[in-house]
Amino acid sequence: MKKLLVILLLLYPLTAQAEMYQWTDGSGTVNFAEGLGSVPKKYRKKAKVVGGEEEAPAPRAAAPASDSDKPKGEEQKSAKKLYGGKDEAGWRREFLKANSDLENAQLELSTLQGRLADTSKMSRSEYLAIQNSIRHAETRLQTQQRRFDELREKADRLDVPAEYRK
């Protein structure tokens, strides 16, 4: 039954709206589930979201009010320099998310490739399912790499300081 579930999960790794979770059980097996409710309770805290290709909407800067309308504390906050409508925290969040998505895609691909290291105990359908999943993971990795490169180019155009990109 568990093999059937694994095969089904591998056949449809990139479902449209579901969040995929990954965790490692006590025996070191990497598992995937399509929702936090499907992850055993004792592994939920360690489960990681895999995928999440939709980008989080960028925070928009509010229209600046005149200095006379702002309390003194807010005048200092608005003195932060914005790059493309985002402050330091916004850029850091965006780079952190892009980097995390890229690392997750790389991890997913390497995990799938590692499963093909020993095919002696694997059925043909399992092998084909893993190969199909690898193709999807490679496409996802390319997409995440392109998004990361585009973010870096955008930051270069806007002269975002290097320390905001970590």
Structure description:
This protein has 166 residues and is mostly helical. Among the domains are: 18-47, no CATH class; 86-161. It is built from 4 helices and 3 strands. The protein has helices spanning 2-11, 72-77, 88-115, 124-157; strands spanning 20-24, 30-33, 48-50. Helix 3 runs antiparallel to helix 4 (124-157). Residues 53-68 have low confidence and may be disordered.
Helix content: 40-55%
Strand order of the largest sheet: 2-1-3
Q: Provide the low-confidence segments as ranges.
A: 53-68
Mean pLDDT: 76
Largest sheet: 3 strands, antiparallel
Could you tell me the number of beta strands? Answer: 3
Distance between the termini: 43 Å
User: What is the alpha-carbon Rg in Å?
Assistant: 21 Å
Shape: elongated
Order of helices and strands: HEEEHHH
The number of helices is 4
The structure class reads: mainly alpha
- Strand content range: 5-15%
